Amino acid sequence: MTSNQKDMKGMKRALTNYGDAEFSLYLRTAFIKAMGYTDEALDRPIIGIVDTHSGYNPCHATVPDLIAAIKRGTMLAGGLPIEFPTISLHESFAYPTSMFLRNLMAMDTEEMIRAQPMDAVVLIGGCDKTVPAQLMAAASADIPAITVVTGPMLSGSHRGERVGACTDCRRFWAQYRAGEIDAPEIDEITNNLVPSGGTCGVMGTASTIACMTEALGMMLPGGATIPAVLADRFRHAEKAGQRAVELAADGLTPSRIITPASLANALRMLLAIGGSTNGIVHLAAIAGRLGIDIDYQAFDQMGRETPVLIDLKPSGSYYMDDLYRAGGLAPVFRELKPLLNLDCLTVSGRTLGEEIDDLPAAFRQEVVRTIDQPIHQGGSIAVLNGNLAGSGAIIKQSAGTPQLMAHTGKAVVFESIEDMAARIDDPDLKVSETDVLVMKNCGPRGAPGMPEAGYIPIPKKLARNGVKDMVRISDGRMSGTAFGTIVLHASPESAIGGPLALVENGDLITLDVPNRLLTLNVEESELERRRAYLKPPVDPTTLRGYLRLYHEQVNQAEKGCDFDFMTAHETVAKTP
Ligand code: FES
Questions:
Q1: Model confidence pLDDT, tens digit, residues 293-310
Q2: Is the pTM of this model over 0.85?
Q3: DSSP 8-class letter at 277
Q4: Which atom of ligand 1 is least distant from the CA of 58?
Q5: Among the CATH numbers 3.50.30.80, 3.30.390.80, 3.40.50.2300, 1.10.530.10, which is that of 381-540?
Q6: What residues does ligand 1 touch, defined as CB less than 6 Å away?
Q7: Which residue in 193, 277, 466, 556 has the most C-beta neighbors within 10 A?
Q8: Separation between Cα atoms, residue 267 and residue 279, nearest integer Å
């Protein structure tokens, strides 16, 4: 868009190029009038609404009602709301993995925001990859934008026990694998695990990203935790529609809100909520759109001084609807206030500090702890160094087994996800509970799409003997709803010759979380010898279409797995 077009408002923005701007506007006006608009309506500020409803996305089941509420708010404030579709991604309906498609959704959203006339945009996201994709797009398109999430699902009940997706999904599946529950019961459980529309009801990736987005300032206060089906969710959406009209007038763009300081606030929130490890990958991608790098050593240090305050699954015991009833993020913001950058602007037009000062009064509740009595003392996510961590690997120690945080064991190596799936339950697999399970080729390029396969299941024969956790290492990701002593995001990934590619069966591996080390106890000369024989697992010239683009352009985990050509041209700052 030329700078001249950027200054245009409403229908005059982003005119189709026929070489005659007046003709373009005339034609556009004629076409949109086919939908019954009056000139008066078309003269108003236009608020685009990103419609991510899809029959394949139960986490977005309520989007039509959210759109209605946002439209109501927009019209109350004198704007003209126009919704438009983009790609929608659900975790269980995206082959090979939704992460592979996140960048496609980000490109789709960015280009549709840019291509169509709108003075501000309301981004309706929810399921894991959707909000990151939209924030990446908004950062690049840089017109006023505001996020509304679909909100968490309610919790359900199975035979009198409270359940919710998806920490309990994994717990029940582990029990089924261990022979503790039978096939009819696992079928019955599918009726109750996801009792309503909305995103996963624990502190998984969707909830994590929603909380981080509120801390980042891209969402109106209170919006992260309201359950998807409650009336309050729709009141929040109405307010967002209203606020979008003011944002359009103020010209408050994402690049003024997403800064190193506000990204640091989002990272602080990630740590304090014991959030998903995926949160850091997505934040790196959003920051990368504005030329901001994550400083992982500084992030680790931040982790050491940020206790986990929320008692939510998978690190704790409650569900998202409990967090909402406990005041949402208000008690978290109150506790974190001394650690946050309070001058950061938010989409409300006020600073984070002003918003925190205006929070509703505190009341007694049990879900959010105080900073003096946290659920976990510092460092929910630790950044590992050492010869096996390469340029970085991470572990969510708050979801791991304390006794395994310093552990040496023999490597049991799987060459790929397929290899792991084929052999993990083989009764002849040579494995004991003190071994370290290693999975290669699970990274951004190798898998492709860095799937959430890092949660390598405990081999059935060990699970049946009561083994609940082992040290597991991969260059993949893990669902935010999963738990275990699991090292993730080893970078560079094995598919491009990272250190993980050099591990062989029987090598001794040491995980030392207190000292932030991941070590392959093999002589450098031997590693050098192995390196000489490495071959890339895939020849990119045999690929086509989006898969080839992905393979050739995706960057590594510490950069957010964005496409290199979508990031800012240069690094201008670091965070935290
Ligand atoms: Fe959509 Fe978990 S599957 S948030």
A1: 999 999 999 999 999 999
A2: yes
A3: T
A4: 1
A5: 3.50.30.80
A6: 59, 90-91, 127-128, 166, 199-200, 204, 206
A7: 277
A8: 8
